[in-house]
């Protein structure tokens, strides 16, 4: 495979945070048709916008969206990717919590809407991003959201394996031990991903995709070389929301979502489970709603062999009138 940098061709835009003076939020973009529907991709708890802009042929969702006639953007929530604040002390409380993420989404939507002459924006939210984008879409800015795709959605189902890592179900005090951020490297990324791929199904993920995703994530963090092996920093504020959801406490009322909504997950996903996703789907009251499940895929299906099925079903839903 060619060096990943040969595929790293997205534009970078930095927009001002309205919530935090001095903070610049990073937004990736690939040129689509001038009048194409704008789509904002919002990441989850672990990877930044790199999840959608993996510098590898065949699994770059932004490029696939352009080829589908859309105008795609991907946001780095504060603390992720290139949206690092000047001061990012480890000792602080978990950084980039839900309300802050929603404010960042709002800033990105407003910037994109202005760039597209006031057009509403379709939004794709992955994992934790399915919570933050849904909460944004039921707020005061709901009219700015044309369609909502919740990819690998998380809602409100008890998840013992996650709770064992996060905190006691009745006591959130242990969450403070996570501090502002954590570090991830190639080995930890591989370990988490491998845990979802069944034995004998190693072909679901190409090694070069894993390498490109991690290498690009390391390059996006100027302090990645401060450890050996190199590692990139990831905020821990997401754990507050996930602790609530994995304790079966609802983060929002799905009945309040009025825009068309699609839920899509991989069958092997143990974080976004079928029972949780279907419970969420059954609570939706939007006139247009859809549930899609794609076989032979994990929580990271966008970076696996079935990526094109995920892209195609999502783009079709976004483009429908």
Keywords:
321 residues, alpha/beta, Rossmann fold, eight-stranded mixed β-sheet, two-stranded antiparallel sheet, hydrolase activity, AB_hydrolase_1, Carboxylesterase_BioH, AB_hydrolase_fold
Task: Walk me through the structure.
The chain has helices at 61-67, 98-115, 128-137, 160-166, 186-194, 207-219, 238-245, 274-283, 307-319; strands at 11-16, 24-29, 38-42, 71-75, 121-126, 145-151, 181-184, 232-235, 261-266, 289-294. With 321 residues, the protein is of the alpha/beta class. It has a single domain, classed as Rossmann fold. The strands form 2 sheets. An 8-stranded mixed beta sheet has the order 1-2-4-3-5-6-9-10, with helices on both faces. A two-stranded antiparallel sheet has the order 7-8. Helix 2 packs across helix 3. The radius of gyration is 18 Å and the shape is globular. Residues 39-304 form the AB hydrolase-1 domain. InterPro entries: AB_hydrolase_1, AB_hydrolase_fold, Carboxylesterase_BioH. Keywords: Hydrolase.
